[in-house]
Amino acid sequence: xxxxxxxxxxxxxxxxxxxxxxxxxxxxxxxxxxxxxxxxxxxxxxxxxxxxxxxxxxxxxxxxxxxxxxxxxxxxxxxxxxxxxxxxxxxxxxxxxxxxxxxxxxxxxxxxxxxxxxxxxxxxxxxxxxxxxxxxxxxxxxxxxxxxxxxxxxxxxxxxxxxxxxxxxxxxxxxxxxxxxxxxxxxxxxxxxxxxxxxxxxxxxxxxxxxxxxxxxxxxxxxxxxxxxxxxxxxxxxxxxxxxxxxxxxxxxxxxxxxxxxxxxxxxxxxxxxxxxxxxxxxxxxxxxxxxxxxxxxxxxxxxxxxxxxxxxxxxxxxxxxxxxxxxxxxxxxxxxxxx
Length: 340
Description:
Elements: H1 14-24, H2 28-35, E1 48-51, E2 54-59, E3 64-71, E4 74-78, H3 84-97, E5 103-107, H4 113-116, E6 126-130, H5 131-150, H6 163-171, E7 179-181, E8 184-188, E9 193-197, E10 209-212, E11 217-225, H7 241-249, E12 257-262, H8 268-290, H9 295-302, H10 314-327
Parallel strand pairs: 4-5, 5-6, 6-7, 11-12
Antiparallel strand pairs: 1-2, 2-3, 3-4, 8-9, 9-10, 10-11
Helix pairs in contact: 1-2, 7-8, 8-9, 8-10, 9-10
């Protein structure tokens, strides 16, 4: 992934970030650079303003980034964390942030539990999502709960994910989206609006990108990740992902602040760099398939050509091979036609 210049790194404390933002006035490239990494190291420290009335909070559990966009008619929350308890905590934090404004809208960037299980706490808010995310949320939730129950062992490298946290995830009642769309949508916040776009399949088949045009802030969900490599799971579409990021890049300017689903704010150059890496994954899968490398040997065969650790790419290969086989790409094994 592309690295940001050292000079862009700011102090963690929100008060110092506020000083930098006031000096930059949120305008021009200098303003974008000044706020771009206020989130670095700010896990668990509450909301940080990354654009005009656009706030982001990072949480230690799964390093999820959650957004809040404030308008004259209310607040739109972008993703809701991983359980009912975490959703209530999020709602309390938003109320402290803007005590005179209600959370009226929620946007789920995709179907995964760490972004949607807090929906249940958002009473009175209308929840928006892509139609595929809404259709698959129950099955996705059932799967993750079963996985936790089957293997509740804690990861020592993730101290924030305690037994209590996992218990809360399993116990959470789902709340499904109220409003869905297929391609594009918008939400009127009063004195501003936010745009919702489904750029195509990638991390899932229901990913959406949320743009705040007047602030040049874009929430990318898990189509973009900063604190780890992109997550190619069992429901990902590695061959489609680069094209989806192409459309996302088209929304960005040199001044854009992009909020990934996990990690710190990034810029257009970072998104372009990650798009190139995701494209490398897709091209290598296609090449290995065309060479008839068996699926269970493909990860090893890719060797150092993979842009990410090979240990995390098994599902990407399986998913890519299956899609290529369904599409009848060269390399597919077929039975010979019966002659005579």
